[in-house]
Write a structure and sequence with these properties.
The protein has 380 residues and is of the alpha+beta class. The N and C termini lie far apart (55 Å). It has a four-stranded mixed beta sheet with strand order 8-11-12-13, with helices on both faces. The protein has a three-stranded mixed beta sheet with strand order 3-4-5. It has 15 helices and 14 strands. β1 (53-57) and β2 (60-63) form a beta hairpin. α4 packs across α6.
């Protein structure tokens, strides 16, 4: 019997002797394996009890050296799927590219990966939640060799089971940010399934979701403007130009009626160089007759106080002399709009890389703690 398994650099080893090698889902990930008395396709029972291996789920193991990233955690949980079912909720959205979902909940604790099993006899285990709700086979897909529920069903599940309507709105907004689901697609799906648990919350939250919010804090900002302040539907990340058609900037939230630009500054903006850029940006807006309001993470904790600040800033913007107005929201012919899911999906691959490359850098700058996730905002 071999006492050594050449597994760390062979993540594509067979799950069981005689079984063909499962495809590697993505580079850097390790598919969990069962114990193998021969030590060929997995650790021997003795090896599995050593520090060189850790149990990822019931009856499955991965080398202890495998980093437990978000994607690795999702892959490990998927090993517990029955013959019919798929990963759903936040984990399915993350696997499909929605980067703001990192599976961390309140107090920094990991959220379980939810498996939609449609009543199959799957035993509960740590780190895995089971959904026994009905599951249409047409709502299952395979992405990189992992069975998932479709993006629209995944966010529909996430919204219905969210603790409150605000969190449900954030979930849809961040799925739309990744261009996985449009608001209308979610609404159409929800109307086809009106009697499910949490369906009313899902429908209400969809009406307060935003397809061009670039981070969870921006969703909170927009909800405060629309709900607490009662100032109507806001413009999010829409460009503003000078009277010669030159781009002044793209504020997080903009009121085209008064010329009020609102910016949310996360922790990244506290760095000296970034702060200098932010001050220059504010001066540029003001030179063109725009009013400017900066919002920080603590402000989002008291949305009623923030709503008062919004009203005050809007009153200042109203007081600007018309002669000072040197800005316009009319887009010049050279500008390519990207403020809806449909517009972004229609981009050619080269244009998508060129026009949407800001998203990865912007994700860190919008987070209050650097690279972060939906967790800071969906747990409020």
């Amino acid at each position: 019997m071999p006492d050594q398994l050449d597994q760390p650099d062979r993540p594509d080893q067979p799950d069981r002797p005689g079984q063909s090698s499962p495809a590697v889902p993505r580079p850097g990930l390790f598919r969990p394996v069962r114990r193998d008395p021969r030590g060929l396709s997995g650790p021997t029972p003795k090896m599995a009890r050593t520090d060189g291996w850790r149990r990822s789920s019931r009856g499955r193991y991965v080398p202890a050296s495998v980093e437990r990233t978000v994607e690795q955690r999702i892959l490990e949980a998927s090993a517990a799927l029955p013959d019919f079912g798929g990963v759903t909720g936040w984990a399915a959205l993350r696997w499909q590219g929605a980067s703001w979902f990192d599976g961390i909940g309140a107090a920094g604790l990991e959220r379980p990966v939810t498996l939609a099993t449609s009543g199959s006899r799957t035993r509960p285990q740590a780190g895995i939640a089971l959904s026994h709700e009905g599951l249409d086979p047409h709502h299952l897909i395979e992405v990189d060799h992992l069975r998932l529920t479709t993006a629209v069903r995944s966010v529909w599940f996430e919204m219905r089971h969210a603790p409150n309507q605000t969190q449900a709105s954030i979930a849809l907004s961040m799925a739309a940010y990744a261009d996985l689901v449009s608001v209308q697609e979610l609404l159409d799906f929800a109307l086809e399934h009106p009697a499910w648990t949490g369906a009313p919350q899902c429908r209400r939250a969809a009406a307060l979701a935003y397809e061009n919010a670039w981070s969870p804090p921006e969703v909170i900002l927009a909800l405060t403007w629309e709900v607490e302040a009662g100032l109507g539907r806001p413009w999010l990340n829409r460009p503003v130009f000078d009277d010669h058609g030159r781009h002044i900037g793209t504020p997080d939230l903009f009121d085209p009626e008064t010329g009020l630009a609102i910016e949310y500054d996360g922790k990244h903006h506290l760095q000296l160089n970034q702060r200098a850029q932010d001050l220059g940006r504010e001066e540029r807006f003001r030179r063109h007759g725009l009013e400017y309001l900066t919002v920080l993470a603590p402000h989002l904790a008291d949305r009623h106080a923030l709503a008062r600040r919004m009203h005050e800033a809007r009153a200042r913007a109203h007081g600007q002399l018309p002669s000072r107005r040197r800005w316009s929201v009319e887009q010049p012919s050279w500008w390519t709009p990207t403020h809806t899911v449909a517009l972004r999906r229609a981009l050619a691959p080269r244009d998508r890389a060129r026009l949407l490359g800001y998203r990865w850098a912007d994700r860190d700058s919008k987070s209050p703690l650097g690279p972060n996730s939906v967790r800071e905002w969906t747990q409020r």
